[in-house]
Amino acid sequence: MGSKSNKKSASGIPTCVVDNDVLNKNTVGKMDDIGLSIFAKLCGMNRGVFVLDPPDGKTYGCTSFPEVFSTNADVPSWYTVKDSAHFTQSFKTGELTAEQTVDIIDQYVSTVYQSSVGNSDNPYGCEVNGLAKLENCPSTTDTPRSLRQDGDIVKSVTLAGAFVPEEWVTGGRVLSMEEVLDFYSYKEFKNMSKLGVNTVQIPVPCNAFIGVGEIADTITTMLKDVSKAGLNAILTLVETKNADEQIITMTESVNDRITAAAKFANDAPAIIAIQLPSPLPSLVSAARAASTTLPVLVPVNKGELASMGFPPDRFLFAALDVGASTSVADVASSDSEGDRMKMFYHENIVCIDRSPIEYLDCYRDMPVYVTSGFDLAVDNCINKDDENFEDYGQCNRFDETIGSGWWERHRQSLASRQLFTYSKGLGFSFSGWKLYGDDDDESIGKIDSPEKLLCLRDVAAAGLLPPIDSIGNSTLNEACLNGPKADFAMGDKTLAPTPAPPPDCGNGWWNYTINDCSYWIPPPPTPQPTAAPFACPSCETQPLSTKYMVSAALVGAVAALVLNW
What we know:
alpha/beta, eight-stranded parallel beta barrel
């Protein structure tokens, strides 16, 4: 196994610091809202106050920053950042450089964490929306920080439905061993490798390795193809109940099964770890009866993190279930806007999971492998045909997501946040590879059913998942830099363009029906220009002659006689 450094020390007090791979002078300007990402989260901790170490006789908070924050960040002596609001505004106006801004944020995050009580029992004590990390973590076992010989993180996909029935994968069928080998063939393992996968996770019944059995023989055959494709395997043991078998209740019988499985795994070069079916210490002891150096994964959910505790064991690791489709809050929605709001909720909470992953590593000396819950489903609709399925209306509108730009963008956001977060430990396993019988090339990448959201082959082909090999690059590191877009109310709809202001109608109004001004009292008509006085051209151009005047006099005389007659 490789040893991946994560700043472990023989002794020390853990500190919470800004992750400079995520938030630095080159990325801080890309943050939509520093106040929302940083201060909205931390200003409420410790009733909103923090102190310096050593104390300086004062108590601080978001409304009062210590002067030393500015001094340590090399802010000019004539300028001091007074509080969080002043800090945010100073960065916007350019009074603080990007480097000074990140420095002050780092001091603030560290000081708030140091002022908090009970960090050793709080898996979310260093939770700052995925922007912070734990450092200076003590280690008493020198546990390797990788399950793989090459030191890389595990980038796995689960072979769902192969040896443990999964109806959503196989359509309700229980596959024969011949069908299993056809379903998960060498060709499929090569396709996995091309996507950046380096490990497969194989769920197996606990009793598969007692004596000589068909499942054990099939796994042996499968592992040859796994190795040939350049992959490794993790054996995940599952307690199952068959129709012809009683549930095992005797602890000794369960332990025998674990010991047999551990011996099988230890003897198989392709297998790099074994996962127990429960966190019972007796099962760890049973695995150790077969091998003292075989990496053993102990299952845990987020509600059990603070209570995890095992005797020191250099090759003991945690297998974390990050699934978020079990509670009513996780899955319930009964209209289109509710569906989108639920997706927004799941996007928001993913980056939070970074904190418990690093907490177990730091405070319990148990590096974490994400064993289940990594997929793009935000409901439990793959189980809608189960007898005990609880219908809240969450599965009635999947067709609305097909071809939707809104859903495509937010699924990409969810996938990026998950890939970033789950790579902070030992690695991860995606929930499934493909659906049984779905071998039509034209259907690959078509997300036309809830089940395909759990299939790595299809979400990758649909362009929803960033390249697995992009882990650690700057683009993926920015996945949690900002929260998801809160555009769930409109979805794919867009607002109509705003019309231009209507013409000024004075004392009237613009009538859109007639496309003209209207008035209660019509305005007086606009005065028209008057015609020029008519002039006789002859009068203006000819002088009055004697003959003309005599003729006019005679006409006048005749008119007078007539009138007097």
